[in-house]
């Protein structure tokens, strides 16, 4: 049984067509049920497909004459949604010609286009960008928001918690994910009014939640593996994510420098190579690629702009997994379980912050 086809923005990312097509081809080799709508420059895509006959036979090309650049503001990209590869890939999801869209392009533009074209689900004020991060535990950590919303009120954070938990049950197979809010301390008195209000509302709704909520966690504990979903605003989440990515690169570069500093260290590297290769695999962001915009009436997956073909293949696999597991329907059911009144009554203002032209990413 084949899945609904996946629309791939073939022009997005640092290297565009070559990596996106190679990634889709790798995903197709791993899972022969995948079918694709490849969106972008028809001539360049067709040329790239000649090297991947297995993908060619499972794909259709949709020509797009324009591309969203990394410097385009969301408002600029929106005006060209009907001509760009990113906009047409999302539109294919809206029209039912694809089950999900994958792009490695401009995050802010992707967010804006997806929200305008697909709209948010009933009960969701704003979509959130969620990603998988490596931990020392048995499962990757799901963290959201990672840049879609620079400012969030308590109601937004509660909605993010519900969506993140539903995502964790799909990708990590957890019956009752452990959810916490990111804060500057674990004490109930720490943090902003929005954080404390969201925590109070979630604790009060414990009996109706499809997850376990136990207050706050701090940034230095994100990789321990003792929490499954961490919720924050997009500004803090994006900073935390980039700090973790920088730390991972620092460790990898430090090990490389240490092992090449002397003959003895080179010999030590040969002995410890299995362990260092495992570490490299664990820290490689390509192995955790594929952030998802949760809360939309349709699936949109964001691949890292610098992802390799392996990373793109993993992003495609994330999209397929969420299609197969009906993530959108699960979120809808969880929202109904918690109840609109719990979400609506949370926070002091009950009103979301005004949307910005820029995302935090």
Residue-averaged pLDDT? 84
Strands of the widest sheet, in order across it, are: 3-2-1-4-11-10-5-6-9-7-8
Number of helices: 13
Can you count the beta strands? Answer: 11
Give an overview of the whole structure.
The structure is a single chain. With 361 residues, the protein is an alpha/beta fold. It is 45% helix and 14% strand. The chain has helices spanning 17-30, 42-49, 53-56, 74-79, 85-94, 107-118, 154-171, 193-204, 234-259, 263-283, 309-324, 327-338, 340-344; strands at 6-9, 36-40, 59-63, 100-103, 128-133, 141-144, 178-182, 212-217, 229-231, 291-294, 299-302. The chain has an eleven-stranded mixed beta sheet, with helices on both faces. Helix 7 (154-171) packs across helix 8 (193-204). The longest helix has 26 residues, at 234-259. The chain is globular, with a radius of gyration of 21 Å. It starts with 5 loop residues before the first strand and ends in a 17-residue tail after the last helix. Mean pLDDT is 84; it is low at 348-358.
Summary, kept brief:
The protein is of the alpha/beta class. The protein has helices at 17-30, 42-49, 53-56, 74-79, 85-94, 107-118, 154-171, 193-204, 234-259, 263-283, 309-324, 327-338, 340-344; strands at 6-9, 36-40, 59-63, 100-103, 128-133, 141-144, 178-182, 212-217, 229-231, 291-294, 299-302.
Provide tags for this entry.
11 strands; 13 helices; 361 residues; single chain; globular; alpha/beta
Q: How does the SSE layout of this entry go?
A:
Elements (H helix, E strand, L loop, with lengths): L5 E4 L7 H14 L5 E5 L1 H8 L3 H4 L2 E5 L10 H6 L5 H10 L5 E4 L3 H12 L9 E6 L7 E4 L9 H18 L6 E5 L10 H12 L7 E6 L11 E3 L2 H26 L3 H21 L7 E4 L4 E4 L6 H16 L2 H12 L1 H5 L17
